[in-house]
Amino acid sequence: MEHLLKGKFGRLVISSYSNQPIRYGTQKRMYISSIWGGRATERTKPLFYQHYKFQKREYGMFVVRALRGVLKIRYLLLGGAVAGGGALNKKYNDWKEGMPNLKWLDDVLPDNDKWNQWRGNLIELRDNVKNNIDIDPRIAALSEAKYAQLKSWFDQRLDDAVAAAEKVEQQSANSSSKGASSLPSLDELPDFIDRMYSEIKNEIQDKHTAFARPFAKKDGEEDRVKKEAQQRLNEIQEEMMQTQIKYQRELEKLERENKELRKQNLLLKQGRKPNLKKIKRSLIDMYSEVLDELADYDIGYNTQDQLPRVVVVGDQSSGKTSVLEMIAQARIFPRGAGEMMTRAPVKVTLSEGPYHVAQFRDSSREFDLTKESDLADLRREVELRMRNSVKGGKTVSSEVISMTVKGPGLQRMVLVDLPGIISTQTTDMAADTRESIRQMTQAYMNNPNAIILCIQDGSVDAERSNVTDLVANCDPSGKRTIFVLTKVDMAEENLADPSRIRKILSGKLFPMKALGYFAVVTGRGRKDDAIQTIKDYEENFFRNSKLLKDSQIRSTQVTTRNLSLAVADCFWKMVRETVEQQADSFKARRFNLETEWKNNFPRLREQDRDELFERARGEILDEVVNLSQVSPREWEERLLVNMWGKVSGNVFENIYLPAAQTGASETFNTAVDIKLRQWAESTLPAQSVECGWESLKSEFQKFMQRASQAPEHDDIFDQLKRAVVNEAMNRHKWEDKASDMLRVIQLNTLEDRTIADKRDWDQAVKFLEASVKAKMKESEETLKALLGPSVKERWLYWKYQSEVQSKRQQVKNELDRILYSNDKHPPILSYDELTTVRNNLQRNAIEVDNEFVREIWNAVYRRHFLNKALGRAYDCKKAFYLYHQQMDVDCADVVLFHRVQQMMKVTSNALRQQITNREARRLDKEIKEVLDDYSQDQGKKVQLLTGRRVTLAEELKRVRQIQEKLEEFIQALNKEK
């Protein structure tokens, strides 16, 4: 406060009552005491009171300013803190988002429960092996080398798991302290394995000692000891079988866990999650796609396709389909009671997947094989495809049905199920069924890289087998054959000599060799049994089978699981050995085809049928567009010409000639009106529509013909274009309402008998004259055909008349005399005139009948009538004035042709409007529909697009596709290695 007062009042204080300055210093205490102590005198009180008031106000203003500054600083600090906190939070979020996502470690690293479960499994394995294995004392006689081999094998199995677990433990310790703290120690596992084997060995030796002790007794007890020993031996063998099954299950469990550990180890090394299953699935799928391409390219299964596949062959009802279903682990094929069900090759691609599903190559639907409804649908679809593939009265087909089956634990391979070999043809089969099946089977087996899965029914006599001879002929050395004996349960039950099965499975009974021999049981004869039920039945059978107990067969030769493993190993071994060679052969094939193309078609681009079809489609549709370029006048002129060509015969024969032959103008007009109305109400509209349709067709064909004559025209499309246009024309139907509309217009036009002006009259006369001249030309040609060469031709060209033509000439001469004598003769000869003509001819020794004379008369009178009509047309050229003055002129035929001409003009105009407004667009639509239909019909393309240029381009494209897919598959195969 002192400092404050010094700053404010320490310099000089002026009293209001004195001019003497009061200096701060000597009287400091007095003044301060006066101000703050309140002891000022009355003289000084006003002055200090004023100073006090001033000081108080100044102090208050200072405090306010100080508080405002402090508050301002606080707000600045607070705002800066808030803004800085927001910026810091944003920076933290950006940094956090930029950090790599480590959630994948939760999916990769197993939790504590999984590690404890894995460790418990190992402990349980030790207890099971120690407590459950009761070894036959006779096993103690095994050599130390056998023990060492068994120990080495089992050590190798567990060492992989131990090594993988140790690597995972080490990686986890570096990446996650939590994970490291939960990992168990695996250092004691090798010692545990050694102790386990030592205990087993000691127990076996002890049991051997106990087992051998009874044999040291007296000779009288020898039989009883042998019997007890045999019984004890059987019990021990049964226990050994059960223990072996348990042991195998434990090993499979350890293998799965070892596989999972290896995958996790690889993940930790690469820093990402590998999808090994996807690689395997895609690998077999890629190979299957190659085989599908080859099936389309090489339908006849020539030697060009030598890629490996597993060919399943066998006699009919030998169990082929059942074996394949057991390998696929699903009932995917239809079944029949004694009926041939497999009628076409079925290519089944097996691959591992998370879900058990099936799918056809050309379908997007997936069948869930765990649902019975989907299984039933799948079997129906397979049966339907087989029946649809059989054509032309055949019983079997070579068309391949391709499908894919995916599921957990399936071995990756491609199998082809073929129709079973038959010995006898039934009456409902085609005559060549047996030979067709044999040829198809041999074609697949003759592939030097195909693995033959020979299926033999164990319940029938070996002498009844047909398939073994075929297999022996195709693969005499047995290097790619695997023999499978089915229905072993029935065979064991029915055979009196069990050693016969041993001979079969040792390759000593059938005249064929094989890589391996297997015995399986694929059911109990019940088609409704599930796959798991059959597997349990098979496992239980072989567990109790005397064949195994008596050591007739080895345990590795039984069950479909061992079979599928062996087949898959053999399949992939063959693929790896031969696929690059096959790729090289297709590369050479491609080079030869490309060389042929360059030599024969150097300036043309390679186009297959699909590409050529699209080019043809564009050209055809371009010609349809050209129809819109035809002018209305051109349409009407062409329609008039076509219309008259369509109706001229009816106008002359049914209207004009009958009406003109009545002989009077009144009757002529009446007959014309009646016949014109009947014509317009009956056939004229239909004839007009037909004329319009033919005009549209001819005009479109003219454009197509013009395009075919262009310099850049490619004649490879001609056959296809003609077929498309003809098909569209056959489909096209004119609108029904068009006939009704034309009928009304035509009736109204034909009822008008007036000719308004000279121009219309001249046009009608010209039309009549041209029409009569055309008909006269036809009549002259008809007479010439009847009479033969004329006099001029006979004299100048040395042509002669036949006897009949000579008679006709004589008859014509007589008929000319009749017409010459009566220019207005009616169109029919009277009986007297016929008699006269015949009598006159008889004088010249010519005998003819009345029909012969009438035939000549019709042609002669027709020409005579047309000559008279042409004369009247010439006379009527200048008669319009008389007609206009309603004077009596003989020009009724001019009026008739004027009415017909006007009707055709009106009809042509209406047809032209219908064509341009409706029919051209409808034709365009129908042509597009035909093109769409043909585009989906590969047979039509093959039929209409022919020639070496097409086939060479098709083959070259397909070979390129196959080679590219093969190279892609080889790259993926090498990566998997």
TrEMBL record:
Its EC number is 3.6.5.5. GO terms for cellular component: microtubule; mitochondrial inner membrane; mitochondrial intermembrane space. It is a single-pass membrane protein. The keyword Cell membrane does not apply. GO terms for molecular function: GTP binding; GTPase activity; lipid binding; microtubule binding. It catalyses: GTP + H2O = GDP + phosphate + H(+). It comes from the Eukaryota. It is an enzyme of class 3 (hydrolase). Residues 304-580 form the Dynamin-type G domain. Residues 226-271 form a coiled coil. Gene3D superfamilies: P-loop containing nucleotide triphosphate hydrolases. GO terms for biological process: apoptotic process; endocytosis; intracellular distribution of mitochondria; mitochondrial fission; mitochondrial fusion; peroxisome fission. InterPro entries: Dynamin, Dynamin_GTPase, Dynamin_N, G_DYNAMIN_dom, OPA1_C, P-loop_NTPase. It is found in: Mitochondrion inner membrane; Mitochondrion intermembrane space. Keywords: Apoptosis, Coiled coil, Disulfide bond, GTP-binding, Hydrolase, Lipid-binding, Membrane, Mitochondrion, Mitochondrion inner membrane, Nucleotide-binding, Transit peptide, Transmembrane, Transmembrane helix. This is Dynamin-like GTPase OPA1, mitochondrial. It comes from Dendroctonus ponderosae (Mountain pine beetle).
